[in-house]
Amino acid sequence: MRISGPTAGRRGRAAAVIAVVLSCSAVLTGPHLAAADGVPAPTAPAPALNWRPCPQDGRFDCATAKVPLDYADPRGRAIDLSVVRRKATRPGRRIGTLFFNPGGPGGPGTVQMPQNYARFPQEVRERFDIVSWDPRGVGNSTAVNCFATPQEAQAWVAGKPAGFPVGARQRDTWIAAYRELGRRCEQRDPALLRHVSTAESALDLDRLRRAVGEPRLTYLGISYGTILGATYAGLFPDTIRALVLDSNIAPSAWTGRAGDATRLPTFLRMGSDRTAAATLDRFLTLCGSTTTAGCAFSAGGPDATRDKFDRLMRRLRERPVGTWTYARTVADTVTGLYIVHPGWTELAARLQALWEGRVPGLSAPLTTPPVTVPYTGDEQAGAVFCGDSPNPRDPGLFHTLEETGTKGDAGRFWTWAAEPCATWPTTAAHPYTGPWDKPTAHPVLVVGTVYDPSTPYSNARAMAEELADARLLTNTGYGHTALLNPSSCINAHVSRYLVDGALPPPGTTCAQDKAPFSAPKPRGGIDAGGGGTAGTVPNRSRLSGPSTR
Q1: pLDDT digits over 2-12, tens only?
Q2: pTM (2 decimals)?
Q3: For residue 53, what is the enclosing H or E element?
């Protein structure tokens, strides 16, 4: 149920799929008062953070923060947030703390920030403590877990179709499985289900900001983390120091315009089906434009490779290869497009194995995180997504949509990704639906990738337009998030902005360092606004807070 990038499972592969949504409205009443209309004022004090070296990797520090389950009842039940930190590598030049959300919803920051730490720009690692956390309801924090034992959870997963349902029998099985999941969750902890909204996570983030002593927030959010960042900006606009939103969900798509929420699920409102189809087409075009030495699935030309893929999909509908059904392969293909290197090469190898009738091999595992790898079942993402974002409540609508309203194989995948919300039992107690255009203390940097298989570039444009003061930085590359698909040009602009508050010139575009199925490009050079890299940030400071420049 996640739309963010890889977790502890496999290198170069995205975590399995869904998103989240948010509904409500609020009026800011002061720099530390998130307000009325459903979002309570955060009167709870900042939690104490007792940092200690993490048990599996002492380079990172771990802590647990206590926050109210319900900010409207700050003296009531408390829940735990698991927090991780990597200190600035050049403490003499430290600026402050950068908070990071890895997306999802349901992405455990205590796992994903350490695993992707090396992808942060060098100067950012040098000058900021980087802090992430498992949001409420997720991972090692007080988590939504609707099964009594791991065996129960495994049996539930095994009992439903992989990827998405194909045919009437599988549709019935899928719908019944997610209805049963919702029933289990409501029985085990109904109060927690109603208090894992994006708005409440934004209140938690503000408590964590205060706990580390930062007067204003410096933040990087990718994928779902962009809607969390936009929500924070709506609740605490005066507290923004720097906000980077990478691979965006448009707020209007998240909350749904009038009438949309009952007709279209969130991912189709976003256009995930269209962007996934376009990215898949580029994958097949570029694969077919090289030899099998460069891309194992190449058929010697773009048209021939697209035809080969279509024939493979038709064949898998009739004759799966082991457990690799048509739907499982489509899901693997969409999520395999998230990380270009080494993900696209590995995806091509898996598709070629299936073409030859062989079960694909496994990718290499990710590095071991500094904490215990937590349980992150579908219900954790679902509790946030389905409680927050409006989706159709008629399960029968999703089959109609996959047949008439989506783009090809990838469209079927993204259509069914939101179906669990049709039978989800609860809604968020304190959601937020805007306004999104409150003037912030400092402008926001929005990063969008042109060929993103999950969050369309059009959503980045919409995010930049819907916020009061934002600058769009375009990544003319591929994959889900610029952070996880490196561009020295993007990193240079992000570093300048985080360190000094300097925005890229309007209309700036960047390329990735290495195109798919090709040798690396020469490093350096910014497509608009002059040259430079993250190591040559100008000697100026436009942001509040300490800087040794």
Answers
A1: 555 444 334 33
A2: 0.90
A3: strand 52-54
